[in-house]
Predict the 3D structure of the following.
Amino acid sequence: MVQTVWNGMLEKIRENPDQQAVFDNRRSLTRKELGLLAASIAERIPSGTRIVGIIMDHGVEMIAAMFAALMKGAAYVPAEPSFPKERIRYMMRESGVTHVIGNEKYAHLTPDLPHIAAEPGFPIDEKLLESGIIPEGEGQDEESLMYVLYTSGTTGKPKGVSVTNRNVCHYVRAFSHEFHPADGDVMLQYSVCSFDIFVEEVYTTLLNGATLAIPDEADKRDISHLMDYVRKHRVTEISGFPYLLQEMNDLPEIPKSLRLLISGGDVIRGSYIDKIKDQVLVYNTYGPSETTVCASYYNCSDGEVLDDGTYPVGKAVLGSEIRILNEAGTEVPDGEVGEICIFGDGVSNGYIGDRAEENKAFSDLPNGGRMYRSGDLGYVLPDGNIAFLHRKDTQVMILGKRIEVSEVANVLLQSALVRQAYVLPKLDRHHLSYMVAYVVKSDPSVSVAGIKEYLKDYLTPFMIPEFFVELDALPLTVNGKVDEEQLPNVDKDALARQVEIRQLTIDDLDLLLTLRMEVLSHVFAEDQKRMTADEWEEIRSQNESYYRDQLVSGGHLACAAYENGQLAGCGGVCIYREMPSPDNRNGICAYLMNIYTRKSFRNRGIGRRTAEWLIDKAKRRGAGKIYLETSKDGRRLYQALGFLKMQDYLKLPLEKS
């Protein structure tokens, strides 16, 4: 039996050294080459190093860096370079990282730690290449710490889950038992490195003899490009969030190479996969990071949805056991609701650092086993499968990520901008979670935009509340606790119904010109001060000529946003053609512009509704590419809509916005 992950990789190297192991858009490595590259990076890690950080772009070098740490007897802490810098520094500091492996361009994120550069194209050491000898590895056994994954924490700081070699080897066996990956299988590496799905993508693939395919960010920009990549590289397995499967479900067809789709991280509904579940094997999975990737599997292609439209989470994976317990720790009868508790080799060592209270969720059992109380509620169905209901506490799932609402509140309260804060989780009509932040500002001059900018240094984008409500004071109960019933209600669905987007035509020219000049006054306030009245009037005249031509010809679509009948904002999109390219064969493009919300209507989602309306119109007109004209405020809006790497989408350089 494989004792460590590195031993498992060595076994596969010896079994078939020339089998392709991993590739990205720059290079492809056989199993032996991957081992030699890992050894080349490992030579730069000082002997005795206990924990290294890994901060780098996704590619074969990232995979080699992780194996390099294991080969050297060290554990690793992965962090995406896009994470807030203060969050990264906290993770590295708390976990005891002494060296960071990564790209040189990210060294500034951890300025106090020695940096081991592993750039794209990092060469295999010539001596190692000549000898062909891959080190056996040192200092690790099955109980050794393998990695630390950071999740949202209740104290206002992220908490690191300590996962051992035993835990991961257990999951590799469980995955193999259910899904039978082998030579010829190709797994897509799609997830961020700090999430459980990444562990599933990498280790269940390489330690079971399959191949790992790592796309570039450009390949992942939308579902069309991603599926082109899957077709080109004959990917057979994808593990992702329900929303990815939902996008695939809406396509006319999916790549024929696919044999397995795995959904995890959030609830999956029958409507998400009703078209694809008969074309490819679709599984629903469940399992907190604390129990190493997945604790249960459910075959959706061969199963049925529950009355609420969701799928069960299935039965325990090989080597695990799941019981539904009450508060006293007694197993409840089948059909009764209780807490989902997980037993077996997947249960990790708990949280790193001083987390005594939170580590009470873990228990050592008299028989030598280990249990984790998940904090999730569920029940056992008549056929033995488990149905997941919801969290016991304030944890919510947003975009497939588990978030402690109290962490968001604590980060808010640590800011000098805020005197009081309370964050409330809510559900919209689609049963998707969102958060509302109620804030009492420390000073009247503080803006909600400023508070959001502060949060970006400490929280990932999906952790920032969707709505902010400013209060003079938080309402309290007689016991001194926040009175949730007295907080102003923010109903996302009701707000959406109150907002109306109206398309504007040439008949609305006066309104259009008024809004356009208001937008220009907002964005170019300093420039306007330096201009004469005649110069400003000339710009208005030029805009009038543009509208008269483009609105009539169909080259420009404009809209106004109304909330409860009041004019709240506007937006526009230019439709034009550029030279056809492989990723936009008809050449039709859209250029979003003029998206603006009046000051008294901001922070209510109106700008987002306007942008979504325009994007939908552009897609219906056949646009294959969408460019953005944006200001600082605009970047926040577009990032919320999924345009995460702004420089890839802007027509104007960022420094000019």
